[in-house]
Fold this sequence. Notes:
With about 575 residues, the protein is of the alpha+beta class.
Amino acid sequence: MAGPGQLSGDGEHRPLVGPELLDAMFYGLDVGVYVVGLDGRIRVVNPRGAELIKRAPEDIVGADAHDLLHRDSDGGVGPREECPLLGALADRQPTRTQETWSERGDGTLMPVGWLMAPYEAAGEYAGGVVTFFDFSGREADSLRREAHLAALENLADRLSLVAEVTTVLTSTLDVQEALRRLNRLVAPRLADWAVVDLLEGEEVLRVSVVHHEGGRHVSKPELEGPIPPLSWASRSPLQRVLRGAPAALVGPENYAGQPDSAIQKVQQDLFRVTGIHSAIMAPLRASHGVLGALTLGRADQPNAFGRDELALVDDIARRAGLAVDNAQLYDRQRRVSETMQRHLLTPLPRVEGLEMAARYQPAPLGSQVGGDWYDAFVLPEEVTMLVIGDVVGHDLEAAAHMSQVRNMLRAFVWDRREPPSVIVDRLDEALVHISDARMASLILGRLEPPDAGEETWRLQWTNAGHPPLLLLGADGSAAFLEDGQGTLLGTDMAPPRSDVLTPLSPRTTIIGYTDGLVESPDEPLDTGLERLRQHTEELAGLPLGDFCDRLIERVRPPGAEDDIALLVVQVP
């Protein structure tokens, strides 16, 4: 059986509300509450609900709500297709009934009023929270019914808000964007002003100020930005919250008189400019301390905040703190991983007459690093070796495997002056024995300068299962080199690979790339390749660095989840 506030139907425990809110909502209400999944089965019930139904909780959890409870006025079980609760679940809409009937454990019928609010778990629609109460006896009075239903609607709205907050905060790993979305969600449902401050050591950054006015959200950038640093001597509400004090009810009276610190003066001005007459300040907490504060203020809304709303805002701030902590940890890991990846990619050599540019762009999701790489180095006989490759995966393990494969390939190239296909075959044979990489694709090319009295450079290359090179001619036309396709490295029984010799007329540009630039699960590969060819022609003539940046910007498919390596070389 799942504990209160948790779902266990799919084997996972997912907190529905925070501990403070859980106590108020689950145990502090004189109404029944149960959570129902999309299959119509009850996941959890509160003690008052079990008491009203006159059944033990273990006899309720797991049962089909329609079969167990829902009855006609004569005690019969109605058709499932006419069940208002199942219909509300299918419609994903909050639904309220004035009076229906439920069967108790002792066989008696109970007139009930109920309200269902849909909720999400892990970002997906998961079912409904049903609040209900007994309409019999003295509770049958119409005024009392309306009061109960109003209370239930308020509770359902809060439960829905908590679920929406969780979805909003987990919808992006951009800290400031997530907090802006949070502000736009809580205003005007709880307040008409929403302010978020983040701590950066002793410094305080006001990242978002939103006012709901005239039916729309208006950001107030003039109130955002750095504010004076934290003062440990000040007793003002914001600084106490930033130092770890619990959420607090705040009003203009807290900022009357002479400010005791620079940050207190800023807060005094904030209350004066906004006209806030009632506010709640709650800490954004993480496991290692306070990360900032959420301030919700009412200026246009006449009612002051009460104690019952304090727990709700504190729970929202707790969720925001966890989201900020996760996003900041992710950002730190991303920067460390990306720095490591870039150090694994060696600088391009300087070769007289050749222009070169390269880019590595990490995956937008995941660990931000991967197995894509480019390489270029010069042999003693003035031959420039070009490599573009991709080891399976886009995580730290793939980056480590990429480093192994790249270093092995460099050693094989330097050890013997052999055609590219022979070198790649030798690498393939050795891969399983002296590398942890399971599979990789690459193109290895020898770029040789023209003989005396000639102008034509020569590119001898082999392709081991990699997307084809693209050549951009001096006339601005682009074409793929589709010959010489061989199998991936790491496949058993690979046939010998072949070499292709391609003459390069003056000002020809060689473009090597990895599949993250052109591949998307939402479209055929040919679509991405054609998009690459078209934009290559459109960007012809740009300096190579600008060419690389613009090409990635234009060609990378929306929602792509792979990293990108890009190597561009132009002959004289």
